[in-house]
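Deliverable D5.2: sample structural annotation.
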Amino acid sequence: MPANILLVEDEPAIQELIAANLNRAGHHVVRAADAESAQRIVREALPDLILLDWMLPGASGIELARRLRADERTRAIPIIMLTARGEEQDKVTGLETGADDYITKPFSPRELVARIKAVLRRRAPQTTEDAVELGGLRLDPGTHRVTADGKVLTLGPTEFRLLHFLMTHPERVHSRAQLLDQVWGDHVFVEERTVDVHIRRLRSVLEPDGFDALIQTVRGSGYRFSTQTPQAPAAR
């Protein structure tokens, strides 16, 4: 699936080459030439992944990575460092700062696209086209099809994205605010109760075939996708 990628690179020729290859691979690229510009872009909307050059004018890529990892809102954004610094200690520094991968220049466009795909599959599986199957439900982003024990279900686009995110992060509890950020986008200003409306719509589609119990409400916390039966409260 196309990913929204923030490319932070100050060399115009390298920036153009990378952006062209990522666009060719189907991704949407937003560019920044320094850390300050990158932070302004991130404040507007969270990207799916950041490609971050180490050597930048002003604050370095390492410093920007530290800022992003220190902020709860941006902590989970996958980061791939791009740098000409190939020494082992440099790689260790980049990874310890919070980078998910470290690519040494020069690199081939094919390698970059492959590494992006690998990081997204690991850190943001909802942005890939990999089918996911749990508890008898199968969701295929490539064909935009959901089946319950082989029966095709009809979901609206928002319910599809919501189910996709929940199925790619099973057994984890997500607050309404987190679901809004991940499914609607943190730059979209809608009420948290909007999540409840779409959860009800999703459950109504799953209910006739008995799959609505997979979408569980965790009182006071949010929602999760789970194939395990919730434990009943202990008797007093």
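Annotation notes: The chain is about 40% helix and 20% strand. Residues 232-236 have pLDDT under 50 and may be disordered.
The annotation will be released with the project's public dataset once the embargo ends.
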